[in-house]
Structure of Biotin transporter:
Amino acid sequence: MTMRPSPSRRRRTPPAKPQRFKITLTELLWALIGLLLTIGGTLLKASTTGLPWTWANGQVPLHFLGVSYQTGAVMLVGCLGGQNAAVMSQIAYLALGLAGFEVFSQGGGLDYLTEPTFGYLLGFVPAAWICGYIAFKAPPRLESLAFSGLCGLMVVHTVGISYLLLSYLLNWLDAASVPLTKALMMYSVTLLPGQVAVICAIAVLAYVLRRVMFY
């Protein structure tokens, strides 16, 4: 007859240790690059040019798209650095602006919380996470990178519009000076085509860079 070990002598498997959130040096580097790109993109106007045969006298005509490269910079760091780096870069960007550094398009400081465009800036944080998450869920193909950027752009406008509605509901903004419908047209509907064009260009750039860097 074989003796079975008592329950007290049975080997118990140790409980699984909870995984800790780790930030790598590479992610910190990409976060710094993303912060600098976002600040620079805020100041740089997005433009396009016509086909080469339309150029005359050696001059290249530029056509302003009505937006800056700010949103494109947010999605670019998501496509290249991943979700953690992208989120860190945008948290740092918001922190610098609210601390008083004039890194936003119209300055900075805590008074910017009452600006109608602050909700769109606030949307950069979840948008960066969504873009970085989707961009690294699949191999780096042009269509997947473009899709991740467009998803991030939709998050920016969703948060921005929600912030606008909340601002008018709580009387943070003067509805008499800028009606809600006009604000939605100015900050979402009018800017959306130019931002989509920037996201498409960013997707091409991210695709090339990830091919060159082999990841």
